[in-house]
Amino acid sequence: MKNKNIIVFSPHNDDLELAMGGTALKYQDEGYNIIKVIFAAGHMSNPHLKEEYVVKARERQALKVERKFGFYKTIFFKLEDTKFKHEIEFVRKDIEKLIKKYEPKKIFIPAFQDVHPDHRAVTKLVKDILKNKNVEILAYEVWSFLDENLPKVYIDVTPYFKDKIEMIKIFKPTEWFSVYMQYIPIYLRALRFGRKINVRYAERFYRLM
What we know:
This protein has helices spanning 15-29, 51-69, 84-87, 92-102, 117-129, 161-169, 172-196; strands at 5-10, 33-38, 73-76, 106-110, 136-140, 152-156, 202-207. The protein is of the alpha/beta class. The protein has a single domain (5-207), classed as Rossmann fold (3-Layer(aba) Sandwich). Strands 3-2-1-4-5-7-6 form a seven-stranded mixed beta sheet, sandwiched between helices. Strand 4, helix 5 and strand 5 form a beta-alpha-beta unit. Helix 1 packs across helix 6. It is globular.
C-alpha cells in the first residue's frame, strides 16, 4: 500500500528488535508495513562457531520474528560482518531500488554516534542516498551512549514492551552475548524515556529529516 510502508535499515539481525521493537509493533498496528533490511548476520560475535552455521541460523531467527510478529518483509544483503566500510557501496543500488519500490513514509537508521562502525557505515550511506528525498528519517539507538544534539521523538511502547522482549529472546541461541549485554540497558532506557512523556516504557529517536 503506497505510503503505508516503513523501511528499517538494520545492520545486523537483531538491531531493529533491540532498539525499536516496540515502535515497529505500534506502527504495524496502525496499518504500516514493516520492511526490515539486514546488512549482515553478525556472525563475528560467535567466532567459535562456523560462519555458515551462524549465518543460516540467524536468517532463520529473523524470519521467525517476521512470521510470529507479522512484519511485512525481511531482506538480507549478506555483507561481510565488520567489513561494511569496504563493502557498503556494493548495496547502494539495491537500497535505491527498495526506496523507489516501496516509497516509504518513514525510514529508520542507526544513530550517528553509535559506537559500532558497521552501524555508522549504514547510516552514512542511507543518509547520502536520501539527501534529496522527501521522506521522514528517524535514527534509533543500539550502541549509543551519548545524547545527540538533534530533535528527539519519544514513542510510547508500553503495550508492546513485553512482545519486544519476546522478539529479542528469539535471537538468544546465537546472539547470547549482545542480547544479554543489552537486557539491562533496554529496560533502563525504556523507563528513562518513558518518564519523558509520562508513560511506563518509551523508545527514543532522533529526527533527521
